Automatic annotation (TrEMBL):
Belongs to the N-acetylmuramoyl-L-alanine amidase 3 family. Coiled coil: none annotated. It catalyses: Hydrolyzes the link between N-acetylmuramoyl residues and L-amino acid residues in certain cell-wall glycopeptides. Signal peptide: none annotated. Its EC number is 3.5.1.28. GO terms for biological process: cell wall organization; peptidoglycan catabolic process. It comes from Paraglaciecola mesophila KMM 241. The lineage of its organism: Bacteria, Pseudomonadati, Pseudomonadota, Gammaproteobacteria, Alteromonadales. This is N-acetylmuramoyl-L-alanine amidase. GO terms for molecular function: N-acetylmuramoyl-L-alanine amidase activity. The keyword Glycoprotein does not apply. It comes from the Bacteria. It holds the Pfam family LysM. Residues 399-442 form the LysM domain.
Amino acid sequence: MKYLWQKITAGILSIMLLLVVPASFAKNAIDSVRIWPSPGSTRIVFDLEDTPEYSYFTLSNPERLVVDLANTNKNFDFATLASKSPLVKKLRYSSPKEKGSIRVVIELNKKLESTLFALPPTEPYRNRLVIDLDDKNAPQTAPTVVKHNSSQQSRDIVIVLDAGHGGEDPGSIGRGGTFEKNITLNVAQRLAKLIDAEPGMKAVMTRSGDYYISPNKRPDIARKHKADLLISIHADAFTTPQPRGASVWVLSMRRANSELGRWMEKSERHSELLGGAAEVIQDTASERYLTQALLDMSMDHSLTTSYDLSRKVIGKLRGITRMHKKIPQAASLAVLTAPDIPSILVETGFISNPSEEKNLNWSKFRQQLADSIFTAVKTHFLDSPPDDSLWAKQKRYNRTHRVRSGESLSLLAQRYNVDVGDIKAANNLNSDVVRIGQVLTIPRT
């Protein structure tokens, strides 16, 4: 009887302890907080030990977003968190609405639209609460148009460069800890410099920093800028370290035509979840593509051009690196789905291969990648410039000449009655040396 009474007493004490458990024993806790600023918006991410239970509301004068997290410890020090966002002043605690919960106040610099959603664990992240803050009144950039004194205006050839992944989505991660998102941004920036230095060409970046953009929105950026070409830069990965080599991809209207292509399609879905795109979670796949009729009418030219350009890019990349595939590959990737814009995806190498991960971290190799892609793109547009571009105008008024044995720049200048300097400028030559078989543009005066 005494033993039974001891057991009953111990049980009652256990129940009482559970009823008076302090807030420090709440099951959830904030592990870290990240702030990702981007043009016109900012993403705040809470990494949590468990699935967040949350509610929120906004306050004005001054503008604030208030987030209540139920059953969560007050363990994170927001004073250590620095915000580089022009939209967010700071984060701080306030009095919670109930015991065992926390209230986080996000002080804003202006009135913003907010979207909150939770994400389950996805490697390399744990549970997350994502807060997207959007400034709908942020100024929109527009493509620059090259204007001339003649009555007919000619424009730049606009090339949109898409650095894959970014922000919450690191892309593939090499064995040495290299993030794909950093490789792609650096190569795209190098390529942009080459394009902008070329008269009559202009580069536009889908992202200029470390922030996330949904794959579905990247073609929209190209369309907004009236792009003549979209190039998406990536670094490949696979489940084993053996595969290696670069490859170039175009859109497939059907299932990918290789095992690697199917892996890429799966990886794109994974990237969308890492980035936390609300439209993906809501599964709006039915709205991702235009109607089949519009695709049939609009995509024929774009796909043909994309394939032709892909072959040129492969030809140049073969001079600096091994190719995983010697012909263009096809996969159903959202970033390639602009029906009116030729689009290619360049996989610069396998970041999952230790040797190629080392190469991709080498500054000289990244520059070689940018140089090779640029040369292929320039060759393509010299052959087929857009009708209303400066290059098309120059092609109409210029001639070409293939250098033969014994010919020099001075001899050609005399023959065509032009200055040597004009020939050098038209062909971006830094010296008077020409090669037999070289095709030169001869400007008309």
